[in-house]
Amino acid sequence: MRFYYDVVCPYSYMETRAVEAAEDAGEAEVEWLPFELRPAPKPLLEVRGDHLRVDWTQNVYRRALDRGIEIHLPRYQPRSTLPLAAACARLGVYAVCGLLERDDDRLRNAAVFVGPDGLIGSYRKTHLPFLGVDRFTVPGDELPVYDTPLGRIGVEICYDLRFPEATRTLALKGADLIAHPTNFPVAARIQTELITVARAAENRIYLLTANRVGKERTGEFCGWSQIVDPYGKRLAEAGETGEAFLVADVDVEKARDKDYVIPGEYELYLFGDRRPELYGALVEETQAVKT
Q: Residue range 128-148: average pLDDT?
């Protein structure tokens, strides 16, 4: 007998967390099915052949786990992402969107990655300045790369880009493209002028930076959203004051070729020529520079 969902709504965060905890503890084998966007009534507890349709109670989960039933269900889809997921499903597109995430009693500066089949992942900002809402958030501790039909996608948020180690880590994990939603103010214009191009070129990846424009209270944002290719060339860019829709062609094979080789003239292996044994200071807790 299998324990599975064949509908989307409703199911709760706590129910899904219970199954995840059981999976982590080795109490159940779970297959996370693609998220399916379609309305459905609340199902009843009933057996159909070798499948068990369930109501949405923790007691049913616990009884199933106690009986060793194999569980099949879609990964939790936060309610706040449902409209975005519905739009992605309707249009057949992928989207990265920044938001604030409530994580128990903590607040996260996060970005969700959503595709036609629903939520793919959620990235939590790992580098936090004492500025704006980041004064009240806690940092994430993962730099995930997501495999998609478009290629391998990483995500960074705003200030993360200032740290070359983060982008290099994503590139070493195989990222072809990094989506980078940000709120760069006018005072941080060097980020959109130089740092975006540098990060793309030094890692041979595509960088998609989406920056704010306009003002909020005393803050003013510098705009200049852009799509940068693995050679540091801006394929598309917006102005500094108005909203824009940018489009560019992406060839992931260019991001996967990290070498510059002209036979008989020169050979540069951007990742192959690295000397990790010399870079220990990057991860040492003590350093000469005061922090």
A: 94
